[in-house]
Design brief:
globular; 142 residues; 6 helices; two-stranded antiparallel ribbon; Cytochrome Bc1 Complex, Chain D, domain 2; mainly alpha
């Protein structure tokens, strides 16, 4: 009985270690400078007026509190001592590809993660891509 218990605990520890290493790769991808993983992601949602409108609605619901209604980084409810990014300027510190923007929305912004990620079910994958399309419409052009 003791051996079975020890084997189960060892297996659990290995699984947990694997999950931690996987999550660290994903989380570290959100630090300034962009991410190789994000550069390879392709946006599956075509840019269209409907996608941009859906993205604006999702942005207003989830992002405008900190980034402001016009995405200028001037939201009234940003946590104290934070400086949300101006998403309309020409400099995107965490990468400018659609995939990199998507990963920041999904996982948050590091290294200290003052911006938390918006994983499902909080925001759907499609809505995250719609937000990317909306930000493209108000931000720097590709």
């Amino acid at each position: 009985m003791h051996r079975v218990s020890s084997a189960l605990m060892f297996g659990f520890a290995l699984t947990l270690a694997g999950l931690v290493s996987i999550s660290n790769v994903s989380l570290s991808a959100q630090n300034p400078g962009g991410s190789p993983e994000g550069k390879t992601l392709k946006n599956p949602v075509a840019t269209s007026p409907a996608s941009i409108a859906a993205g604006k609605a999702a942005y207003t619901k989830n992002c405008a509190f900190c980034h402001g209604p016009e995405a200028k980084g001037d939201g009234k409810m940003a946590p104290k001592d934070t400086h949300p990014s101006d998403l309309t300027d020409a400099k995107w510190d965490r990468g400018a590809t659609d995939g990199e923007i998507y990963l920041v929305l999904l996982n948050g912004a590091g290294p200290d993660f003052k911006m938390k990620g918006f994983k499902a079910p909080r925001v759907s994958e499609t809505d995250l891509w719609n937000i990317v399309n909306y930000l493209r419409s108000v931000g720097p052009k590709k």
